Amino acid sequence: MEQGTVFDVLVVGGGLAGWRAAEAAASSGVSVALVANGAGNSPDIHALNVPVGPGDSVERYIDDTIRSGRGACDPALVEVLCRGALALADEFPWDRNPDGSFGMLQPVGCSVPRCVSIGHHIGAWALAKIKRELDGKVEVFHGRVTTLRLEDGVFHAKWTGFRATGDSGAARALSVRAEGGRRIAQALSARVVVLATGGWCGKYVFSDNPPELRGDGIKMAQALGAAVRDMDAVQYEPTVALAPAFIRGIPVITTMLHEGATFRNCDGKEFLPDKQANKDELSRAIFAEIAAGHGVPDPRAGAKAQAGVWFDATGVDPSILRSRYADTVRRYEAVGVDITREPMLVAPAPHTSLGGVVIDPRCRVLRADSSPIPGLFAAGEITGGVHGLNRIGGSAGTEVLVFGRIAGSEAAAYASEGR
Ligand SMILES: Cc1cc2nc3c(=O)[nH]c(=O)nc-3n(C[C@H](O)[C@H](O)[C@H](O)COP(=O)(O)OP(=O)(O)OC[C@H]3O[C@@H](n4cnc5c(N)ncnc54)[C@H](O)[C@@H]3O)c2cc1C
Q: Would you give per-residue pLDDT tens digits along the chain (419 residues)?
C-alpha cells in the first residue's frame, strides 16, 4: 500500500459477513482492503438454513422467521434472506443422506428440518475457503478500528494494529511483536465502506462470544448519522456450558431437542416438554426454573448458587449423537463427560445481538428519515431487522452469506460509479 492510498472499498470486520463482502467486491474488479481484530463468531457456525428439505419452501421459511421475530422483523429483509438462501443449496458440498437428499437438522424455531452443514463446521470451512481464494487479491490489516469519519467523499478509518497479507497475517503480526515492533496507529482511506463488525454480546461476563465483539461498528455508523433499531434485543442461547470449567461458555447445539434431548432441574425432573418452543421461550423457562429454586448449582460459584439446569441427551440414540453431534460428543469426552450417559450442565447466555444498524435490502445504511448514507453499507450481526426480536436457529449463517454478498456487490457498484 502506497502512502495516501485510497481504496475503492474498505471492509471493517473479518467474520463471514465481512469476508463474503470482500469476495463479492473483489470479484467486481475494485480495490479492496479488509481490517479486523479477530474472526468473531463466524468460525463457530455449525449449520445454516436452506429451505430445500421435504415439505419446505421459501414461503414457509419466511413464515417461520416472521412468526419467531415477534412482530419486529423488516419483511423486506426477511424476503431477501429467505429467497437468497436458495442459492446456497448448490454453492457448498453439504452433507447428504445415502439416498442423495440433504442431511438436515431441525433448528429451534423452524417448523421443519432446514439446517444444512458440512460436518458441523461450515463457518470455519467457508472462511478458510474464501481467504484461500482471495489470497493476494485483498489487502488485509489486523487491528481494531476506533473511529470512522467521512471527509470530502472519502472515509478515513483510524485503526491500531499490524498490516498483513493473506493468511500469513497472524504470523506476521506475531513476528512484528517478537521483534519488539510497536503497534501502529494509522488511517485507512476508502471511497466506500462495508461495516461487518458483528454484535456486542462479547461485553457480557458469561457469553459464548469473543470479547472483541463490543458493538464498535454500530457506534461508528451512528457517528455518521445511521439509525439503529431494537438495541435492547439480545438473543440468549439456552444451552451454554457452565461446567466443566474448560468448556465453560461453549454452546451445545439446540437441534438436539428435536432428537429427544430434554431439560431437567436439580431434582432430575423434566421440564419444558414443548419441543417446538423457540430460543426465547426456552431461555425464559430455564431462568424461571432457576428462579423458582430448582436450578443446579454452578460448581464454580459455591453450593448455594443455582445457576444452571441439566440438558439431558441420554435419551437420544447414541449413534445419532456420535454421527450428527460428533464435535459435541468429542468436546465433552475430552473433559471426562460421556453425554450418551450423563447430562450436560448448561445455562442461557447472551449469544446474538438482534438489534443494530438499519439497512435496506441493498445493505445501504439508512438514516432515521430512511435516506441512505452515501457510500456506507453494512451486513451481518451488526444490522437489525432481519430476525426481529428472536432469531431462529441457523439463520445467522444464512444471513451473513446472503447479505455479505449483497453488501460487497453494492459497495463495488457504488465505488465504480464514482470513478
Ligand atoms: C458459539 C456460537 C455458535 C454459533 N453457531 C451458529 C450456527 O450454527 N448457525 C448460525 O446460523 N449461527 C450461529 N451463530 C451465530 C453466528 O455465528 C453469528 O451471528 C455470525 O457469525 C455473525 O457474523 P458476522 O460476520 O456478522 O460477525 P462476526 O463473525 O462476529 O465478525 C465480526 C468481525 O468484526 C471484527 N470487529 C469487531 N469490532 C471491530 C473493530 N472495532 N475493528 C475491526 N474489526 C472489528 C471482529 O473481530 C470480527 O472479525 C453462532 C454464534 C456463536 C457465538
A: 666 789 999 999 999 999 999 999 999 999 999 999 999 999 999 899 999 999 999 999 999 999 999 999 999 999 999 999 999 999 999 999 999 999 998 888 899 999 999 986 899 999 999 999 999 899 998 889 999 999 999 999 998 876 554 444 444 444 444 344 455 558 899 999 999 999 999 999 889 999 999 999 999 999 999 999 999 999 999 999 999 989 999 999 888 998 999 999 999 999 986 777 888 899 999 999 999 999 998 887 665 565 899 999 999 999 999 988 998 999 999 999 999 999 999 999 999 999 999 999 999 999 999 999 999 999 999 999 999 999 999 999 999 999 999 999 999 999 998 66
State the Cα angle at 373 between 367 and 379, rounded to 5°.
Answer: 90
| Residue identifier of the C-alpha nearest atom 37 of ligand 1 | 197
C-alpha 43 to ligand 1 mean position (Å): 8
Cα separation, 410 vs 315, in Å, equals 49
- 305 and 367 inside one domain: no
Report the CATH number that the domain containing residue 158 is assigned in CATH.
Answer: 3.50.50.60
Distances from the Cα of 26 to the Cα of 22, 23, 127, angstroms: 6, 5, 15
Spacing, Cα 200 to ligand 1 middle (Å): 10
Grid cell locating 243: 461446567
Q: Are residues 347 and 360 in the same domain?
A: no
Q: For the chain, give percent helix, strand, coil, nearest 5.
A: 35, 25, 40
In total, how many domains does the chain have? 2
Distance 341 CA to ligand 1 centre (A): 32
Gap from CA of 115 to ligand 1 centroid (Å): 18
Q: Which atom of ligand 1 approaches the CA of 398 most closely?
A: 11
